[in-house]
Structure prediction request, 331 residues.
Amino acid sequence: MALFATLRKNALLTAMLVGTLLYELFALVPFLQPIGDEVGPILPDLLPVGLFTLLYCTFCKIRLSELQPRTWHFVIQAIRVTLSGSLVLMILALDNGWLPITIGEGRAEACKLILEGMFICFICPTASAVVVVAEKLGGSIGSLTIFTIIANMVTMVIIPVFFPLVEREAHITFLMAMLMLLRSVTLVLVVPLVLAQLTRRFLPAVSNKLNTCKNIGFYIWCFNLAVVTGLTVRNIQHSTVSGWVLWMLLITPLFVCLVQFAIGKAVGRHWGDSISAGQALGQKNTVVGIWLTLTFLNPLAAVAPGAYVLWQNLVNSWQLWYKQKHGYLIW
Prediction:
């Protein structure tokens, strides 16, 4: 019972460990490999269903009056664009030989790959499930919901601007980016929000019942996290990048993660909402980031957003542990 209580208190970390162990088990044990080959491709298809369900349950707790843009929403977006743009300038300087030092061709390609990995971690929009963790930490669900919509709208604009500068062959138009993100936002964010508000209005007994089931959305997110972690471990192990470049693609997202959480919290503290702002800038939709990297940038750089999902959830796990232990966040 003591072990179960410990695992429950560290649910995010437990989910990551379970996802890693299950992947290794079904990948390495010979008689389990056929089962893994059959079930493995099905699990990613369950992620949108789980995300839709957890957001619907969470959105049943908010009122439409809470969905109001705030000043820090736009400050955080300006910072996000600036951070992404700074990486674009660094990549352009490397490509065009503007650096004050000479770098060999092979090393320059490796450095560009690392910078692309950092760039995609900065430019990723906020994760739709950010409201689940933020609620546990004491953040505002309504504020983060409207922020996520704003973040995706900004992403529609900056992706067609920045991507061709990073990779000259990245032919992505504003319309393409808009349709891609609009579909994602509508299906995963807007539809559960509308259904939740209709439930509050016409089926209050149902919404009240869901609100009494504490942590249901959080535990659904833990299931999703276990699946994402397993997929991330697989992608890292099957990556064709090796040596110091692979290590840099794994370690630099930790730096990017801590920087974004720290800046977000510092900005939010000014407006009395450090928890929400920290999660808004730090917790990323890495699934979109991986897809964008594989489709428009150097596919090898997809290791970075994969590693980011592990780092951001280690940060989230530590925050949840500290909040449960002390009743407040020190950071």
Q: What stands out?
A: The mean pLDDT is 91.
